[in-house]
TrEMBL record:
Pfam families: Sdh_cyt. This is Succinate dehydrogenase cytochrome b556 subunit. Its cofactor is heme. NCBIfam families: succ_dehyd_cytB (TIGR02970). Keywords: Heme, Iron, Membrane, Metal-binding, Transmembrane, Transmembrane helix. InterPro entries: SQR/QFR_C/D (IPR034804), Succ_DH_cytb556 (IPR014314), SuccDH_FuR_B_TM-su (IPR000701). Belongs to the cytochrome b560 family. It comes from Collimonas rhizosphaerae. Membrane-anchoring subunit of succinate dehydrogenase (SDH). The lineage of its organism: Bacteria, Pseudomonadati, Pseudomonadota, Betaproteobacteria, Burkholderiales.
Length: 136
């Protein structure tokens, strides 16, 4: 068949790194990516958390040291990020478990469940932030 007679078919190519900013994901896709990021964050920081726990349990003086260490605003932000990661990962994990049972797979239900993950996890993270920074 000649080149002129071939029908023009759309070409589907992988997205380039320069096109990521302009690419518009649905809410369910954003929640899925955040689920992966939160899992990675928890996994990578787990040795650090266990090290801090181990050192804080050695003696009362080491506990007081880490108590003072965690009063720094930057450390509180790291703790808040880990808290958000846990809360988001937990809520999104429940969503994925429900979807694994073939519940809520249609487009409208997936959008609602993705919004539900944000509606639950973000206020919980805000409550942790308020407690962490001494609002109550």
């Amino acid at each position: 068949m000649s080149e002129a007679a071939k029908p023009n078919r759309p070409q589907f190519r992988n997205i380039n790194i320069t096109q990521i900013v302009g690419y518009r994901l649905p809410l369910a896709g954003i929640i899925s990516i955040l689920h992966r990021i939160s899992g990675l964050l928890m996994f990578l920081l787990l040795p650090f958390i266990l090290f801090m726990l181990d050192k804080s349990l050695i003696s009362e003086s080491s506990f007081e040291y880490f108590k003072g260490f965690t009063s720094n605003w930057f450390v509180k932000l790291v703790i808040l990020a880990l808290s958000w990661a846990y809360l988001h990962h937990f809520c999104a994990g429940i969503r994925h478990l429900v979807m694994d049972n073939h519940i809520g797979l249609d487009k409208d239900s997936a959008r609602k469940s993705a919004a539900g993950v944000l509606i639950v996890s973000v206020p919980l993270a805000l409550i942790v932030a308020l407690k962490l920074f001494g609002a109550f």
